[in-house]
What we know:
The complex is a heterodimer. The model of chain A has no long low-confidence stretch (mean pLDDT 95). Chain A has one helix and 18 strands. Chain A is globular and about 60 Å long. Chain A has one helix at residues 7-14; strands at 26-29, 32-33, 36-37, 47-48, 88-97, 101-115, 123-124, 143-150, 157-165, 172-173, 177-179, 190-193, 202-210, 219-233, 242-243, 252-254, 260-266, 274-282. By secondary structure, chain A is mostly beta strands. Chain A starts with 6 loop residues before the first helix and ends with a strand. Chain B is mainly beta. In chain B, the strands form three sheets. Chain B has a six-stranded antiparallel barrel. The chains are: A mainly beta, B mainly beta. Chains A and B meet through helix 1, strand 1, strand 5 and strand 18 of A and helix 1, strand 5 and strand 12 of B.
Amino acid sequence: MGSITDLSNLLSKVSGGSSGAPERPWVFVDNRVGSAAATTPVASRWSSLWLYNRSYNGVSANPGAVNVPTRTSNGALTVANASGGLEKKLLGIEGVCTQQCTLLLYDRLLHISGLSGTSTSAQNVQSGSGVALTRNTGGVGNQIWAEIYTAIGTTATTITASYTNQAGTAGRTTVATAFGGSALNNAQRMINLPLQAGDTGVQSVQTVTLAASTGTAGDFGVTIVRPLMTAFCPVAGGVLNRDLLAGIPPVQTIDTDACIAAMYLPTGATAPQLFFGLGLVDA
Amino acid sequence: MAWTNHAAVKAARANNPIPPLVSNTNGMFGAGLFGSQFSGSTPGASAACDASTTGGLIKLNNLALDSGKTYWLSRSWFCNTGSSTSRRAMLVDRLVHQGGLSGTVTSEQTTNLPTAALTRYTGGAGVHIGLQIYTALGSTSVTVTARYTNQAGTGSRVTPAISLPSSPPAAAFFPLPLQAGDTGVRSVEGVTLSASTLTAGNFGVTLYKPLGILAPEAGPNSTQVSSNSQNVMNEREHLLGGICTSIDPNACLDLLVQAGSSSAVYPYFIEIVPEQ
């Protein structure tokens, strides 16, 4: 396992010595998706930045059939893999944001779109696909999120996922979670599916099932997420700075071929613009 | 070159012959994400910017950096003594700029384009596009796109449209996203407005490289920011942490600043140190 030994070693690495290979990717994220304004967010509801227009490796299409995004996929905050037996370390973030919010950076391990908001049958995610996780395959810490790409209906219902947990036990079921209806049917909405009691992670998601139709098919999917860090913008127009060298969480290891992505939790109903950069080294 | 150890950083700071750069106080406005503090003449024909460019911070502070050395953003300070609140500033290297675009032309504008060749970050990776307003545009809100050549040298790429607000004032600065998959820009060839803003004004394209976020106003939460942060000095450490930024000695340093209102506020102070 790689490490940063002390402050002098850190200084050397972030300035290009000691095989640090530092990277500083910067991205401007506009509050538009394609040719239109992003969907108005809802306070205290997570929204995905995956489709937001950006200045760094943006996305132009929904995920489609289940697949594993990597650092070379459109949408990834692409960074080079570490070399020489070292590991890629995320040291922090600095940026600005036009709205008060919490930003969550994560490794997007797997995604799918094209699921229907009107079907009450078990809808396949990985079942029968042959697609499996390629990163954090043991599953500990992985989370299941429903992600809406085109608005589903206004009829409130619940959603569950059938999954295999971190111990390889299949047939686990997430806690039924509100889905559809006001504030939970919008495009770019992300809804966390809590795991079955006692579970701490996910190796695979077989299917998702709606308890009832939401009234509109729309388009939604499932995203398997491994959280990396959060950053907080305390006020509209404020900074979004966080250094992981001191505090919790500690410096994060970025898996080989990770697809670094982001979602945000707003406190208001205005889609944000963000401009942020990451600090990464090999250690 | 790289820092060998912490002692070298301490020595560099202790023996630093470069006084802190003092920024301008212009460019504060209330619309959009940023305003540019660039105080040079309004550009016409596209030109590459460097440390000798009037309006850049190195020239503004009458400095001449050694082109054979590596410089690092070390610390920054900000103290808001004004009635408005200035909440963020991004330090950038202003690479290339041009002006003379009109807020009333709705066909693709190529006046003073394509942008001049990059002289730094010449491959285009990590280079961003911004639109800077030099004379206010009109009251009709429009969208705008730019046609550009990306980091791989592929031309005819088109940015997704951004929204320009009503009557963007002089100094307003609007970053542009890029076409899906792109990670940088080598040049911009054209700009297109969706409609007339009703006032010609003057705006232009700036290619720039983000460098870092400077010290914000003091106060970690919304209640403190609004009033209690006045007259409180805030410092940000840039070197002894995980986010470390090198400064090209030929850089044309500019600040993109956003303020809560149009009131002027006090400047930023920026320390850069040469690597030992």
